[in-house]
Every structure is written in structure tokens, then in C-alpha cells.
């Protein structure tokens, strides 16, 4: 997908004159790419029409970078489409709120309920979980297990088969216990069916939620619009959470869900575990959708500018601490790894942020000092469990740094490693390596 948009834009750059024909071709490529990213046909049509009206070729002065202007228009248009114009309800501390989760079976409701509860608990709320899924065998056990792991109070029943009754009992109980965020997990079905929507209508009527969140699997594609709309009709959906964005899903269905519910996306799920949860941010989401931004430039640069034999032997699929060390080292004298580092958006931002270069340099130096006290095994480690307390204490002592600074660095490395694993450069590395053999 990213490739095709990048190609379309590159073709425009190559064209000496950007006329109607070139623009139309470019828009067609972009449309194709958006359709592949699961954006609904009607939405793609709108994007195309809007961009056409924004990009007024005649008005563009000669010599301006028309490719950039079109790229900006596409990004701007998609951002606009992800913004329904009104923010979602957010819970307030100390004031009891009820939030109901809806979505098809397997979309990630139960997992996401716990993530959501945990997110607000960290902000000082007292959340609680109610399992109103009496349809799926084992639903209560699953919620119980998740909730216990996150140390969040929960309510449910093995015997009661009426979801409305359980939901009401659970909400009442936690209201009495002065919980300020009561989360109701509901059942789903594999298909959209009348019984499910009737159940959602009843649970919603009985618990009067302040917010209904529609949970969708990031890869559901064209079905997103109808699904979201059906849920919206039975319970008044006010926000969307897109799950499984850690996989290959581009998440284009989110645009449809926003359009169908006229509600914003508030979080995305990026893994099976509780911390794999991020506040939704429209710009990176759109970049991912388009697979372009600086990344397409990055690919070109790696392929054309950098001597493969210098760069590739250092690159590993896993972003080890050693690779981070080498990037830092290289960054200071602008070697190929350092260039790569500085080109990857998000990766380098906090180290070379404009106006904060000094702090960035100090941080790099501090991190390198800490890494100097690590063993070979620690530098090449890919097992998240290796870095235990005694190792961390030893590293802190050895580098003359605070334990907290070591922990912070390890956290940051984890974050960067996660970002690294999502970059579309891994095939490239593999190919280069094969060609060097
Ligand atoms: P529910 O039927 O809607 O309650 O869905 P579940 O919460 O039971 O999730 C279904 C499956 O999706 C489980 O195996 C979850 O671990 C998995 N899952 C949920 N959210 C995510 C996510 O963001 N990323 C990944 N990789 N898996 C997820
Ligand atoms: Mg569930």
C-alpha cells in the first residue's frame, strides 16, 4: 500500500508538468491504496473529490512542489475525516460514570475493558469491571482473570443467564462502593444478528451508560461501516476503539466506524497485554494508513545512498541495546547507522528535537555510559525477562547512575524496539543481506 502511494507521488515528481491527467492518475493510485487499506468505497470517493477541489493546479505557482501539496491534502483530508467534530465523553474522578463496551465476538472487548480500566486507574480513578456476557462460555472466567491480573474489582456470575440483570446488579454494587468508573463488558456474536442488538439495547437502557464504546478489530475492513452503524442503532455509541493495530492491519475501517457512529476513535490496542494500549493520535494513524510520510523517503535513502555492506551487517531484526548503542555512536559522526537513526520519524525525535539538541546529546551520552556497564549478553539480549533487579542495580552502580535512570533507559529502549519492529524495512534488510551473501 505505502509503496503504491509513494510510487504515485514519485511519478508526479518525475513529471515535469503536473496537469489534470497526472493529478487524475495520482488520485486513482491513492484511491486504490485506500481501498486496499479497507477504507470504504464511498469514503474514498469523497477523499478524491475533496482533494480535487483543494488542489487547484492553476493557482499553484510554477516551481512549487505539487507533490507535497497533494500529499498534504491527502493527509489533511484523512485527518479531517477521522474527526467527527465533537470530543468523546471522558470520565471525571469522583463522579460515577458507566461505560459500556460493545462489538462483535473476538473484536477485543474483554481485553480492551481491562486496558481501559487500567489506564484510568493509573490516572487515579477507582474503576471496576462488570461481566454482562452470559453468551460465551468462559466469558466470566476470562474477565476475572484479566481483572485480577490488573487488580481491578469485578462482578459477574456463573449461573445467571440474564445479561441485563447482571449488568444492573454490577453497576449498583459498584456505585455503592463509590467506584467512579464502572465498565460493562457485553457479549458479542460472530455475526451481526437481531438478538445481539436487542440485548445491547436492553443492557444500555437498564444501565444508562454515560459512554458506549464500539470496539472494532483493526482488520475487519469493508464490514466496519455496517457493523458500527448497527451497534449505533441499538446503543448510542459515542466513541470507537480500534484493536489489533500491532499486526498488519492498516486500520482503514476506523474511518468507516467514525463516519457511521459520528464518534471519535479514542484509543488503539497494540497487543494482547494490558499496557499495549495507546491514546489515539490522528497523525501517526494516517501516516500508517498511507504508509508514507518520511518512511518512503527512508526506503529510497537506504536503497540509494547507503552502502549496503556497511549498513546491513549491523542491522538485526530485533532492536537490541547493542544496536541502539551503535546507532548513538554512529549518530555522533553521521555514519550510515546514525543517518538511519535520524531519518526514522519518532525514533530520533526526542534525541534531536529542534531547540532541545543539548538535552538530546546529554541523554545520548548518559545512555551510552549506562550501556558501557552492561555485559555482552545484556547488550545482545532479546529476552524481556533478563533485566532483573540485581542486573539493574549492578549496571547503575557500575555506571554511577541512578537505578531510576537505568530503568528509564530500558523503558525507552523497549519503546524504540517496538517502533522498530513495525518499520517496513525488515524485508529490505533481509533482501540486502541475501544479496551480500
Ligand atoms: P471479545 O470477544 O470482544 O471480548 O474479544 P477478546 O477480548 O476476548 O479478544 C479476542 C482475542 O483478541 C484475544 O485472543 C485477545 O488476546 C486478542 N486481542 C485483543 N486485543 C488485541 C490487540 O490489540 N492486539 C492483539 N494482537 N490481540 C488482541
Ligand atoms: Mg469478551
TrEMBL record:
Biological role: Component of the signal recognition particle (SRP) complex, a ribonucleoprotein complex that mediates the cotranslational targeting of secretory and membrane proteins to the endoplasmic reticulum (ER). As part of the SRP complex, associates with the SRP receptor (SR) component SRPRA to target secretory proteins to the endoplasmic reticulum membrane. Binds to the signal sequence of presecretory proteins when they emerge from the ribosomes. Displays basal GTPase activity, and stimulates reciprocal GTPase activation of the SR subunit SRPRA.
This protein's name: Signal recognition particle 54 kDa protein
Description of its domains: The NG domain, also named G domain, is a special guanosine triphosphatase (GTPase) domain, which binds GTP and forms a guanosine 5'-triphosphate (GTP)-dependent complex with a homologous NG domain in the SRP receptor subunit SRPRA. The two NG domains undergo cooperative rearrangements upon their assembly, which culminate in the reciprocal activation of the GTPase activity of one another. SRP receptor compaction upon binding with cargo-loaded SRP and GTPase rearrangement drive SRP-mediated cotranslational protein translocation into the ER. The M domain binds the 7SL RNA in presence of SRP19 and binds the signal sequence of presecretory proteins.
Domain called SRP54-type proteins GTP-binding: residue spans: 264-277
InterPro entries in UniProt: AAA+_ATPase, P-loop_NTPase, Signal_recog_part_SRP54_M_sf, Signal_recog_particl_SRP54_hlx, Signal_recog_particle_SRP54_M, SRP/SRP_N, SRP54, SRP54_euk
Keywords: Cytoplasm, Endoplasmic reticulum, GTP-binding, Hydrolase, Nucleotide-binding, Ribonucleoprotein, RNA-binding, Signal recognition particle
One Pfam match: SRP54
Reactions catalysed, as given in the entry: GTP + H2O = GDP + phosphate + H(+)
Species this chain originates from: Panicum virgatum (Blackwell switchgrass)
Main location per the UniProt record: cytoplasm
Subunit-level organization: Component of a signal recognition particle (SRP) complex that consists of a 7SL RNA molecule of 300 nucleotides and six protein subunits: SRP72, SRP68, SRP54, SRP19, SRP14 and SRP9.
Superkingdom of the source species: Eukaryota
Upper lineage: Eukaryota, Viridiplantae, Streptophyta, Embryophyta, Tracheophyta
Localisation per UniProt entry: Cytoplasm; Endoplasmic reticulum
Record PROSITE patterns: SRP54
GO biological-process terms attached to the record: SRP-dependent cotranslational protein targeting to membrane, translocation
Record-stated family: Belongs to the GTP-binding SRP family. SRP54 subfamily.
Entry GO terms, CC: cytosol; endoplasmic reticulum; signal recognition particle, endoplasmic reticulum targeting
GO MF terms, alphabetically ordered: 7S RNA binding; endoplasmic reticulum signal peptide binding; GTP binding; GTPase activity
